Request: fold
Amino acid sequence: MLAAHTLATWAKSGIKAVINRRRPKDGDDPRVRQGDSDRHEDNSFPSGHSAGAVAVGEAIARAYPDHAVAARSVALSVSAVQVPRGTHYAGDVLAGIAIGLIAERVSDAAIDLAVRWARRGLAAPQRITGGNEATPAIRHTSAPSSPVFIASTHP
Reply:
């Protein structure tokens, strides 16, 4: 969840740094334009609340499938309420939702890749260099999903 939220926040912040759009409550000007304003009133696009809520909601849904409907409902509620509050246009919210979905998928894939890499690294036999007979060798004795290692001395 933390990785997904962090990635979503990073992505929306990167976009807000180069895109300006007035918030609905600060003047009805829905144009999206290039800019570098860091004023809150000029940073409507994309919705950070939507990006973060959807990223976390999707991470919860993936980790706890029995709670997927509740997690996604809360995330969509947080997103949808931004329009009547006057803080975002519908397009801002949709962009935030897309960012959240992508951030969760990317962070999940990155974590899976890191776990597979770590398991493969743990399962790889260690080579002993030199002629020291007292140097311990580590042998893999079970499946990579539950590594158990036994130390023995070099033969």
In short: Confidence is low (pLDDT under 50) at residues 145-155. The chain has four helices and four strands. Residues 52 and 64 are 18 Å apart (CA to CA). The beta strands are 19-20, 33-34, 136-140, 149-153.
